[in-house]
Amino acid sequence: MAGLLGFLLFTASCSDKSTKPADEGDPSDPSGQFDESGLTRQENDGSWDSSVIVYRDDTYDHYFTRFEGFTGADAAYSTLLPNGDIFWSFGDSWFGKVSANRSRDATTSFFVRNAAMVQHGECFDCFSALNDHGPQSAKTLLLHKQDPDHWYWPYDATVHDNKLHFLISHVTKTEEGGMWGFKTVGSDLAIFSLPELSLDTIIADKYKGEATFGSCLLEDGDYTYIYGTVWGYLSKRVSIARAPQGDLTADWEFWNGTGWQSSPSDYTMPDLDASDQFSVFKVGDTYYLFTQEILFGTRLFLYEGDSPSGPFTNKRILYNIPTQFPETFTYNALVHPELSKQGELVISYCINTNNFQDQFTNADTYRPYFLRIRY
Predict the structure, then answer these.
(1) Quick one: how many helices (H) and strands (E) in the chain?
(2) What are the Cα distances from residue 222, in Å, to 75, 114, 225?
(3) Strands of 86-90's sheet, edge to edge?
C-alpha cells in the first residue's frame, strides 16, 4: 500500500519516489522530515490501512472557511488551467455573510444552484468567484433554460484547444419533493474561453439518460474517458464513455463490456459501486479508481486495474471519515492531483445537514473539507 500511494501523484516523478512512511522522512526534503505545518495528523483507529498516514489539511480548510461572498457549497471539483490557475466548480452554494461565530443570517445569505471560483495561488485571498454577487443578491452561474424546475450541478472538466470543456448534470424536480426530490436526466456541456473564463455556449443533451456521465474524467492517450454511475438496488454501478483527445464536443463512444459502440450501452462494471462523484487516475501502466462508500458511507476506497474500463479490483480502505457535527452526513469525495505535492495525495469531501436550518446555525455543516494522505 505504501508504494501504491507514492505512485498516485505525479507520473513524471514516480520512479524516484521513496516508499517510507511519513514519520521516516521525506526524500524530497533535505532535512529528512516532512513539513507538517498546516496539517493535523489523524489517529488511525484501526478502520483504515495501517500503512496510510492521514492529515487534516488545516490550510485548505482555512481557505474554505469563508465569511463573505462565497461561504459554502458541495461538489468541489478542481481543474488545472494552462496558466497555472485552478478552476473550482460547486453544486448548491451559499453567498453572503457569515458571522464570526459561524452563523449565517438568512436575510444576507443567498442560495444558488451552482458556482465557480478561480484560484490564482495558495493564499486565502487567492480565490475569486465567477458568480455575479453582491451584498443584496447572488446569481447561479449556469442557468438552465427551464429554471427553476430544471438546473445544473457540476461534473468534471478538461481543457481542449484553449477552451474549458465543463460537463454539467441536467437535474430536474420530481413529484416526491423535499430534499431528495430530484433526478438526473442527462449531461450538458458548457464551453468557456480561456484565460478569461467567459461562457461561449452550453451544448444541451450531450448525453441523455440515467447515467451520470461526467462524474469524473481521465485523460489517457488518444482519448478522454468519461465516467458515470447508474442506480441499481442499493448499488451504483460505473458506466464509461470516451471522446477523442479532450474534445468533449465530438461524438462519444460507449463501452459495452467487450468493445466501444456509437450508441449508449446498458453495460456497467460488475462488482464495483462508486459514489456519484469519484476519481480515476493512471500511473505507469496501472489505473486507479478512488471513491467514497455509497449511500453516504464514511469509508474512502481505492481500486486498481489494467485498463480504463477495468476491471477494478484490490479494494483498499484509505480513510474512515469521522462525524464532525451531529445530524450531518458526508459525500462527494474527490482527489485533487493539481494540489498534490510529492509524496502525498490530496482529497476533499463534503458534509451536509439532515436539517436545512442547521446551515444557518453553523455554516461549517455545509462545505468541503480537505485531507492529505502520505505514505
Answers:
(1) 3, 25
(2) 28, 31, 10
(3) 77-80, 86-90, 115-119, 127-129
CA distance 141 to 157: 15
Q: Is the distance from CB of 338 to CB of 316 less than 8 angstroms?
A: no
The three cell numbers locating residue 304 = 486498481
User: Nearest-5° angle of CA 52, CA 54, CA 59?
Assistant: 150
> pLDDT value at position 342?
66
Q: How far apart are CA 199 and CA 190, in angstroms?
A: 7
Q: What's the CA gap between 217 and 87, in Å, rounded?
A: 15
| CA 53 – CA 374 distance, rounded (Å) | 5
| Measured CA angle at 234 (ends 232, 237), to 5 deg | 45
Residue 69 · residue 363 · CB < 8 Å: no
The confidence score (pLDDT) of residue 26 equals 42
Residues (pLDDT < 50) of the chain are 1-32
Query: Do the Cβ atoms of 103 and 96 come closer than 8 Å?
Result: no
Bridge partners (DSSP) of residue 201 are: 191
